[in-house]
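Most newcomers find our protein records easier to grasp once they have seen one. There is nothing in a record beyond a sequence line and a structure line. Getting from the letters to the tokens is the skill we practise here. An example says more than a description, so a record of this kind follows:
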Amino acid sequence: MAFKIKNLPSFFLLLLVQSMFFEVVISIENGINSTGGHWVELQRSIGISAMHMQVMYDNKVVIFDRTDFGPSNISLSHHRCRFNPHDLALKLDCTAHSVLYDLSHNTLRPLTLRTDAWCSSGALTPDGSLLQTGGFNDGYTTLRSFTPCPQHNTCDWRELRNHSLSNSRWYSSNQILPSGKIIVVGGRNSFTYEFVPKNDVASSSFHYLPFLKHTRDPNRGEENNLYPFLHLLPDGNLFIFANRNSILFDYTTNKVLRNFPTIPGQEKRNYPSTASSVLLPLNLTALNGTRLPDAEIMICGGAYPGAFSLANTLKIFLEASRTCGRLRVTDSNPVWVMETMPTPRVMPDMVLLPNGNVIILNGAMNGTAGWENAANPVLHPVLYRPGLVDQFQRFQLLAPASTPRMYHSSAVLVPDGRVLVGGSNPHRVYDFLANPYPTELSLDAYYPEYLGTEFDSLRPSIVAVEASNNTASYGRAFAVNFLLREYRVGGVGVTLVAPSFTTHSFAMNQRLLVLEVVGIQQVAPSGYKVVARAPPSLAVAPPGFYMLFIVHAGVPSAAVWVQVK
């Protein structure tokens, strides 16, 4: 290895010295005496690797990987097969590459993907259907939909062959908009955006966005601007982050309204130097109808310049980024505030919990995204508490997982408050014998500490939402009845969480709103009624289905689904 090292720049040498001692880092992490929550393996094998996941309003989860991995470990139902002359792995394939997982019963059934959805994107429409965009090869411009069918459980993927995407969308990102349309941004060599569904002449076109080209690194394979981070802000404009830069974008006029400061540090933050990003909870409790909520973005993890090339060509795995950055984008003069995670992490997943905290899990301490491009899995999740004043107290290491979740893993919040975790396939095909990171077909659940039995007396249980068809109308008050054994004064909140489409460390459309509580009263010995006000506008909460949680003393109930419209 010495002849490979001597010509490296001094910056790489410094990082390489850090990386050569990653065994020490492993021993430190394994020696951490951390508590908080626990893990349960739900399924040893779901037949596919959970590269993409979307929770649906009927408490089922759509999971899929790609059609050109080769045969999966689950057959299509009724002895069906899929014939596709364009498929690069199997022209005739009798196995499934998507499943529908039932959260309530811990069961699954195969679904039929007809074109390749590898490294694609998606979002839920206002009526709760999954609109899924792009992929690879025959899926570059494909639009697919999946509509829940809770009554008969026979629904499957539909390909919208008469409504193709205008540009190739491989490694693109989606965000639902106030209008209910979905904006699709970027993709490999696609420096444009467009809108779906494609139901009018205006939405059949695409628009050039120079920011996407300016943020692409020129070195072969590096890019570092794929799967750009998108967040809809309360004023209706779009925050877009790629590589190290970010803009405030008016997609209705195709104008950049503002260039935000570059995030400090040398680390790159988008694929393949993959970090993760969330819009921190929007607090609607003290607005009095006179102003918009503050909006703050948080980005964690990533990799240093050149890390992908070193990993991809020499299998030298540089230490990943240890930093997170927070940017309050609604400030008149926004400034990044940087914080340090307990361990370095690339390819993390960041999931908003119902009580407003953030859990950071999955990923590796060295390398980047890509085929066999990372080492040293991070098994310990980290809890981040954004509301604590002392930033040194905000991070808390949690109980470790037993399964590495590397490239092509994912995580989503589910209505009972658990975090569903699956996937990990850092190989070009299914490889179940690879050492040390085989293709992973298992599905786990992380149970946060608030689900412990010691919090049973503080845990609310929702009885009913006093709203027609569980509809929360913009700006209107509605009541929720719940049971609670031990009530603590001032400790009740109501949160809405939008279910995300998660892939490649980015939970698209993830959103948490802390609603204004108008009043609370006791209606029975252990029965209570809380009156909350629905979000004030379409931009604050795009239309669609949300998980509604009652949070008491930091302990959330199981959610019920409400439709915001």
